[in-house]
Write a structure and sequence with these properties.
By secondary structure, the chain is mostly helical. The protein has one domain. It has helices spanning about 1-25, 35-55, 65-90, 105-125. α1 (about 1-25) runs antiparallel to α2, α2 runs antiparallel to α3 (about 65-90) and α3 packs antiparallel against α4. The longest helix is centred in the middle third of the chain and has 26 residues, at about 65-90. It is found in: Membrane.
C-alpha cells in the first residue's frame, strides 16, 4: 500500500507540474485572467495533495484500512476537485459544455476535507 501511495503521489505531482507549465505557457494566450486563476487553483491543490500522499506514506501509526480510506478519499478528491477546475477553466476551448460538471468541484473538495479529517481523528485517537 505504501508503494502505491508514493507512486500515486509522484504521478499526481508530475501531472501538476505538467498542467502548471501548460497553463502558464500555452493556455495564457487563450484564457482570461479569471480562467487562468481557476486553472492555477487546480494545479496548486493537486500539488498540495501529492505532498499529502507522501506524508501519508510515512505514517506508521495508521492501519492499512485507515491508510486505504484516506488514500482513496484524497485521490478521488484530487480527480474531482482539480480535474473539474481544469475542465471548467478551459470550457470555452471545447465543444462540450463542462458547466454541467460544476457539482464535481465541491464534492471533490469535500472528499479532500474528509481525507484530512480522517487522518486528524485517527491520530487524535491514538494513545501516545
Amino acid at each position: 500500500m505504501k508503494k502505491r501511495i508514493i507512486l500515486t503521489g509522484t504521478f499526481i505531482g508530475m501531472l501538476a507540474i505538467i498542467f502548471g507549465a501548460f497553463g502558464a505557457h500555452l493556455l495564457k494566450k487563450y484564457l482570461t485572467v479569471e480562467q487562468l486563476a481557476t486553472f492555477e487553483i487546480g494545479v496548486r491543490y493537486q500539488m498540495y495533495h501529492a505532498f499529502f500522499l507522501f506524508f501519508l506514506s510515512t505514517r506508521k501509526e495508521l492501519s492499512k484500512r485507515v491508510l486505504k480510506i484516506i488514500y482513496n478519499l484524497a485521490v478521488a478528491g484530487v480527480i474531482l476537485f482539480s480535474g473539474s477546475l481544469y475542465l471548467l477553466a478551459t470550457n470555452n476551448l471545447t465543444v462540450f459544455d463542462f458547466k454541467v460538471i460544476v457539482f464535481a468541484t465541491p464534492i471533490g473538495g469535500f472528499l479532500l476535507i474528509l481525507a484530512w479529517l480522517t487522518l486528524f481523528i485517527t491520530i487524535l485517537r491514538k494513545k501516545s
